[in-house]
Amino acid sequence: MSTTKTSKKKRFKLTNENYYSKEANQRYFSVSQVKDFLKCEAYAMAKINGEWVEEPTTPMLIGSYVDSYFEGTLEEFKSKTPELFKKDGSLKSDYVKAESIIRRVENEELFMNCMSGEKQVIMTGEFLGVQWKIKMDSYIPHQAIVDLKVVQKLRDISYKNGFRQSFIEKWGYDLQLGIYQEIVRQNTGEVLDCIIAAVDKQDYPDIDCILIPNEQLEFQRNQLLFKMQRIIDVKNYNEEPRRCGVCDYCRATKKLEKLILPDDLIVFN
Q1: CATH number of the domain residue 155 falls in
Q2: Is residue 215 in some structural domain?
Q3: Model-wide pTM > 0.85
Q4: Is 245 inside any structural domain?
Q5: Residue 71 belongs to some domain of the structure
Q6: Once rounded to an integer, what is the mean pLDDT over residues 130-153?
């Protein structure tokens, strides 16, 4: 029995078609999966097991619209996503905005150069004792790993523990690229520059290409070391997943078990 399982695991080949499949998500860690665990363990496990599927939001679809343009699959994306269109067949205003974002980035040589690499390149590797999968928006061999981000506002500043942070730190994009850099190094022997090609959704979109310092990438990889064992134990069913109590999944699956006090309504994140 164990021999059969091992041979099946060896035969599994990660492709664009199965990259987001349940089997791939169970076999491999990804940065988005780890961020799910850091948000809510119960939510992460429900997604891995196919018990919770998130409907795409408008901001997600705008990002996918721009992604598909760079992948060369925009027409296919449109045909598979009828919710982009009004009854008369014209694009809804949110996706007209996506078109304006595309026009904006097309006029920037540096941005287009950053996005000129091989698209959606998949690599796998081992880090912190587990297997990882990555999928790169623009991979420029021997030069750079580029991640495309379509954000609400490029220069929004938030605070965590009293420290200012950009959208990069807020959403863990430096951790994402830190893992990408390590997996590419394992596959090629090269430590490549990591760049975020970012554009926002303002009426006049702001745009920048941001080089993430290697020290920042290494710091995020090291920080993950202290959190990863708990995540591995939960994913392997060696620990019960904790519920955060406030995410969509927790609210949707909440069971009332006792009376609470007013102070219990105050959530400390």
Answers
A1: 3.90.320.10
A2: yes
A3: yes
A4: yes
A5: no
A6: 96
